Structures are given as C-alpha cells and as structure tokens.
Amino acid sequence: MDVQLLTTVLVIFVATLVGSALQSQRKDRCLQDMHRFHVTVAHKDKRLIWGTMNLQSTGFELVYRRDMLSHEAHAKTSYVFYKDEYNNLQAIYRYVDELTDENRQRRDRDLERAFHPSPIQFSVRAIRNFLDTATDSLTQAFNLILGRSKIVTNQALLSQGQAHLTGLTKDILGYVGTNYDPLLERFVGTQVVVETTQGNEMYEHVGILKDYSATFLEILDVYFSQTARLDVQDVTDPEITPPLAHYGYNADPTVLESIQAVLDHRVLIIRNQTPRPILITAICSPASRIEIHAIVEVGRTLRYALEDISPKERIVVELQLVRRVDMVLPRAHSLLRHRAERYTPAHAFGVPLLLQSSSSAQRREEAERERLSLDPSDAEAAVSLGLLLLQRNEIQEADHWLSRALEMREKLADGGLLATQELERTRQMREETGAD
User: Fold this and answer.
1) How many C-beta atoms lie closer than 10 Å to residue 117's C-beta?
2) pLDDT of residue 235
C-alpha cells in the first residue's frame, strides 16, 4: 500500500477522533456564564421563557421552577433550545436583583476572574486569542502539506481527505476559543453602549462588556426597562378592586409590592418604594386611556387628578420598572457602538428609535397634534408628541415640543423630569450628528 495514502488516511482518522471529542465538549463562552443560573430568554417574536439554564455544546435546556400544564393536560418541565435556533433569540437576561446568595457569590467570582485575571488566566486568554488569529494560517499550512502528498493515482481520494481535514482542523483549533476581535478586546471590562434591533425598533443598552464570542456579546449591570401593570385600590370604596392586585409581563411581584397605587377621592396617589425610578406611562379604565409619561423617583409620591374617568371604574396603571440585569445578546442583531460614560437608572426609560414608522404611531401623532391644536397649553400632549418624533429620529422638531412642554412644567405630573431627560438626549444626538 502506498505510504503517502496510508499516512493521509491515518491523519484523517486521528483528526476525526480528536475533532469529534473536542467538538462534543465545546460550549459558547458567553452562554457558559449563564450555566446553572435562572435566566429569561426572549424570542424575536416577543415570547418569554424562563428557567434554570443547563448548557450543552448543541444547545441548552431551561428547567422550569414549577411544572407547566399544556392544553393537552400533560405536564411540561423544561424547554429546549437548539444551537441552530440561536439566531431566533432576541436576548438572554439574568436578573441580578433575583440572585440567591450562592449565585451572587458565583457571579462575583466570575467577575473577579474576568476583570482581575491571574497571570495564568491572562496567558491562557492571550494564547487563545493568538490561536484564533492563526487558525486560517494553520489551515492553509495543512492544505499545503497534504497538497504535496498527492499522487496522480489517488488524487480523488486525497482531495476528499483534504477537504474533510480542513474542516476538522478548524474544529480542533476552535476548541481553544471563539473568534478573536482585536477591536472588541479593547473594550472588555469597560462600560459600553450596545445597539440592538427588535422588529422595526432600535434600542441602546449600556453595560460593562464582560466577554464576546462569534455568536454573542455579554454585557453586565444593565439598567433594563420592564413593562408592568398595576391595579389601583380605591380607598374611598375598597370593593371596587381587590387591594393591591398586581400583574405584569414577567414582572417580579416583590418589586411591584414596593409600589403603592391608591385612589383617594378621584386623586391617584402612587408611591415609589423600589430602589430605582419608575415611569408611569398611562392610566387606563375600561372606557378610556390617559397617557402621562411621568417619572416617579425613589421615595417620591406622584399625585394625579382623574377628571376624565368615571367613578366606580376599575383603574389600571401601566408603568415601566428599572431592573438590573446581565444580558447575552446575539451579534446577528446587536452591535457595540460607543464607549459609555456617566449613566443613571432613569436613562433606561429612553425612547427607542423606530427604524420604520408604524400606522399606530402615525395615528398617535395625529391625535397629539389635534390635542395641541385644540389646547396649545396641553403640556402632556407636547411631551407625547416630542417622544413620538424622537422615535422617528426627527430631532429638531422633538426638541421644539419638549422645550415647549418644559415651559409649562407645572402642568406635568412629574414636574418635567422625563421631558428634561429626553431633551438632553436630543441635544446629545444633535451634537453627534452635527445638526443645527
């Protein structure tokens, strides 16, 4: 038997064994940090699934805290995501304020190793980055060696072996790390701004870049806005609604219990006892909806007279909470855009930028313009219109209406806190774009 042919077959055989073994053990570095933590996974279609992550090389399993009963009356105990489905994920969240003492200690140890590595850990990362950079060069070297071993009589077999070995070479070298990006490497451990798209909206998240892989970005200590709804108790007629009945979209009940919402003689009183600001977006009843866009700071109370809501109606407050989370974002729709500077929890209420205006947004804009034409002193309508324009990146006109609202700040429920914050944002955007 030809020695060169036998050598090629032997190399392919050994590479197959080694590559298969290493491939079965390889896990995404960012997802590895979420292993055995309770996380929330958001789909692109806005579905939310949460459970304790059990990560494997081919995907991960979310184990529910309690069994879920399906429509077919059988219990479900977990949900499985496959590696090929990663591009369908919008984000993975780990709520820092929900961590147990044990998991908080695990997280702190991970951060210590990441941001204050020992000499050995630093060397391992440097070697991994070097091997990532050298992968293509080494692959070409293997191709050159195999190319010289070809003989005419076995050219077809050697060509197939070369192609197979090329793929295996990448698998083997890929085991020591994921793609190395010298630009992102400079930002590890610093506060950054990550732009991410969801549908036709673009959001900015500010946090500390912990790590990155070919598929994901991992950022820590992000102030994340979460939508919730809160039933209002009428203290003058307690039978109208159950006292403090809370519900929301994956909102932590213990957080909602720190918000008191009561109705006292047609005056809505909201007290914020959470550790961070909240944003009241609307007050709803079965017959009407009032958008107010008011920030309630920590320890403060908001009072709002309800003149347009009939007595005896059930009232619900729509609000946004600020949660502190760690996030893993797919790089397919997320991009590190800026190095960040000073950042506060209230900035989590920033208006998302709309990539494409929807018909509902256009109808809301028409309604706010009509309100202002009927009453130019309607400060709430001026704020709402300014926010809608800011969504479409119409910075100059947004600046105009937010400034107009602040001239009437005494008519705003929060005294102009939200308008001031968003006006600062418009002026920062104008400086970045060089607009007049």
Assistant:
1) 13
2) 66
Here the tokens at position 384 are: 């709402």
What distance in Å separates the CA atoms of residue 435 and residue 395, rounded to the nearest whole number? 9
400-419 residue pLDDT tens: 999 999 999 999 988 898 88
* Residue 68 main-chain phi, psi, to 5 deg: -105, 135
Same domain, yes or no: 336 and 427: no
- Residue pair 194/337 in contact by the 8 Å Cβ criterion: yes
- Looking up tokens 């007279």 gives 305
> What residues form DSSP beta bridges with 363?
none
**415-432 pLDDT per residue, tens:** 898 889 888 878 877 776
Statement: residue 81 has pLDDT above 90: yes
383 in the same domain as 345: no
**The domain boundary residue, chosen from 159, 180, 201:** 180
Please state, in angstroms and as integers, the Cα–Cα distance from residue 385 to each residue in 8, 359, 381, 382, 396, following that order.
Answer: 70, 15, 6, 5, 12
The parent domain of residue 388 ranges over 351-436
What's the domain count of the chain? 3
Query: How far is the first Cα of the chain from the last one, in angstroms, to the nearest whole number?
Result: 79
pLDDT of 165 higher than 50: no
**Got the DSSP string for 242-276?**
-TT-EEESS--HHHHTTEEEEEETTEEEEEE-SSS
Classify residue 278 by burial, with Cβ atoms within 10 Å: 0-12, 13-18, 19+.
Answer: buried
Q: Which of 180, 204, 234 is the last residue of a domain?
A: 180
| Alpha carbons 364 and 370: distance in angstroms, whole number | 10
Residues 6+ apart with CB under 8 A from 84: none
- Give yes or no: residues 194 and 302 share one domain: yes
| Beta strand 259-264 pairing with 233-234 | parallel
pTM of the predicted model as reported, rounded to 2 decimal places: 0.72
Give yes or no: residues 200 and 253 share one domain: yes
